[in-house]
Each structure stands twice: as structure tokens, then as C-alpha cells.
């Protein structure tokens, strides 16, 4: 078997642990080189997680690369750190905002979560000139999460059920049973999002329109309310796995950057 090739131009790896999914991104100077995902394990699935980590880019020599961890599941951190050392031979650094280019004095990881801080950092690094010092990040994932940075300070935001949770909740999940990907969670089919309208012509379209257009309207409405609270306009950037599907339904044309969290975690590594 040939020796693994040294990965040219690769400078770090970031790990996101969400409630439903783990993603690992390989970074280079030009951005994300590759990304791998798996479901967030539940109790008794440690072996599956170990296999996932051992299978990450086995053809590349990644030993010694720095790694950053952004997790909303603290109980998994010790397991991930052990698996990381076994695969890459380095410490997996927990994300923090100590060197962020904005104020984090009002930011509590316990209250808001590391993921929201990482997404804000990614937005500042990649879209700062367009967004300015005051903006909202809307993250469309398992949950729809908004986070506001105002005058260079993270203030907070809101958390709503995501599209999958909303679709899975209507009618106790019995209406669109074929689109259930897990108990209580529906599956979003991109082809069914074309031509959605507020005046739907049937139950199926009504559920999808309500979930999709309702999520968009919620974010736009929350942005307007937040602007009144801070008494100034807020830019908007969309992120998360479902953001490319929803961008077309916004009344304006916000930038879409699906992996803001991973980009922000890389900024932390390089700071």
C-alpha cells in the first residue's frame, strides 16, 4: 500500500458538532477543500463515530494539522478529542472568541452557543465590507437560528424550529409520512420548493408553503423587529444546509454562504 500523500496547501481542519449532524471540513488558502458529514451519534454508537474519524481522507497525510471544535453537544467533546488524537496526532482546540475581530464581552457560550459565534466570525471575515458593523446571520439547519452583531458586538437572536421539524410536526407527522427522515422530522425535497405560493392549492403544497415561506417571513420579520430594537439597519447573510434553497424566497437578495461556521472556525485557528 502506498504511503499517504502530503496534502498540498492544507492548513487546518474544523469540526462542527450539531444536534443532528457532525461535519468535518478540510481547509486551504482558497477555502474549504473537502467536507465530510455523519449523523450525530446517540448512546451506543461510539463505534460508528470511531469508524467515521478513521476513514477521513486516508489517502492524505494530515498528521499534525491544527484542528478546531465547534460543538453544541458538550458530552461528545471528550470522545471527539480522543478520536482526533488517534487520527491526526494533535489536540482538537475548542473554539473561543478571545481573538475575534469584534467584541464578545456580552457573549456567553453557555447562553448562546459556540456555533453562533463561529458563524458571526465567518460572516465578518468573508462578507464584512458588504454587511458592515451591524448585521444578522440566519442559519437554516435543524433549527432556524438568527444572531445579531450590532456595532461590532454580538447581542443575541432567536431560535425557531427548522424546516424539517416544521414539516414533521404538522398533523403529528402523519400528513407527509413519506417525507419523514426521522421521528418528528420531515425531509425537504428541493424539487418540491419550486413555485411555492402563499395561496396554496392543496394540503401538501400548503404544508410546504407554510414551512418554507413561513420560515422566510419569520426571518424577515425578526430582522425588522431587531432593527427597531437597535435603532439602525441590519444587513443579512444566510447560512446552513438549507440556505441555498431558501434564498430565492427572500424579498431582497442576501448573500448565501452555506459554511459560515466552518469558515469562522478556521479564522479562530489562524488568529
From TrEMBL:
Coiled coil (residue ranges): none
Names of the cofactor(s): K(+); NH4(+)
Family the entry assigns: Belongs to the type III pantothenate kinase family.
UniProt-listed Enzyme Commission number(s): 2.7.1.33
Molecular function (Gene Ontology), one example: pantothenate kinase activity
Keyword field: ATP-binding, Coenzyme A biosynthesis, Cytoplasm, Kinase, Nucleotide-binding, Potassium, Transferase
Subunit record text: Homodimer.
Protein name: Type III pantothenate kinase
Lineage, top ranks: Bacteria, Pseudomonadati, Nitrospirota, Nitrospiria, Nitrospirales
Major location category of this protein: cytoplasm
InterPro entries, A to Z: ATPase_NBD, Type_III_PanK
GO biological process, one term: coenzyme A biosynthetic process
UniProt cross-references to NCBIfam families, sorted A to Z: baf
Entries under Pfam families matching the protein: Pan_kinase
Cell location: Cytoplasm
Cellular-component GO terms for this entry: cytoplasm
Record pathway: Cofactor biosynthesis; coenzyme A biosynthesis; CoA from (R)-pantothenate: step 1/5
Record Gene3D superfamilies: 3.30.420.40
Class of this enzyme: transferase
Known catalytic reactions: (R)-pantothenate + ATP = (R)-4'-phosphopantothenate + ADP + H(+)
